Amino acid sequence: MKIAIIEDEYLASSYLKSILEQQDIFxxxxxxxxxxxxxxxxxxxxxxxxxxxxxxxxGDGKSLEIFEKTIVSCPVIFxxxxxxxxxxxxxxxxxxxxxxxxxxxxxxxxxQKFKKIKDSFNSDSTLQSLVAIENPESSKIQRHFLVNxxxxxxSINESEITYFxxxxxxxxxxxxxxxxxLYNNTLTxxxxxxxxxxxxxxxxxxxxxxxxIKEVIKHSNQKVELIxxxxxxxxxxxxxSKKEINNFKNWLDQ
Length: 254
Prior knowledge:
By secondary structure, the protein is an alpha/beta fold. Helices cover about 30% and strands about 30% of the residues. The chain is built from eight helices and 17 strands. It has helices at about 10-20, 35-45, 65-70, 85-90, 105-115, 125-135, 185-190, 245-250; strands at about 1-5, 30-35, 50-55, 55-60, 60, 75-80, 95-100, 145-150, 150-155, 160-165, 170-175, 180-185, 200, 205-210, 215-220, 225-230, 240. The strands form five sheets. The protein has a five-stranded parallel beta sheet with strand order 2-1-3-6-7, sandwiched between helices. Strands 12-11-10-14-13 form a five-stranded antiparallel beta sheet, with no helix packed on it. The protein has a three-stranded antiparallel beta sheet with strand order 15-16-17, with no helix packed on it. A hairpin with a 4-residue loop joins strand 11 and strand 12. The longest helix is centred in the middle third of the chain and has 14 residues, at about 105-115. The mean pLDDT is about 85.
């Protein structure tokens, strides 16, 4: 088995390498130590290995850049000093980690885990994990929306929403039950916090839930109309903005 260590601290890489050389879980034929993103990109572009140990922070940047510049097709065991949030991300994507400073037993346990998952490893999740760690705010999708209803406060789940509609300076949430609620936000702001798979901003008045789209009528290449499963806020046809037609088609095709 061939292993790569991407670590810019000499003591850390030496410690890791010495444990790998003495363990008996795998027979290792070669261990390559890489000290920078530049070295790693060149190496992965020219070599195939079985497992990589990768520090999140390197002297010339962060490890995410490696995945952006070349294909890393092997499983990665990350070496990190991140907090519990980052660790939960690793666990979610079933990629192991070593939290500095780590003990020999922790490394051996990580190898045992790799032994179990290596045949079913999905390399895409490696990049997804790093993206979530580097941009924790991007994973905070709003799932509930608090609105006033008489003397009550109601929390509306995203699954109940058919569409958001802007009327004048006000934004309203429309639900499957046929109710509408005033919501203190704007279409421009709210779209950034919604699940991009579920919702799409089709024009300056509507954000629609894909589950409430009944028909898509193509009048021409520049005129596409939506028929919803629920009554629209206005009697006029719901037309997709010309500049959003291609994006809308790609969204529907997900």
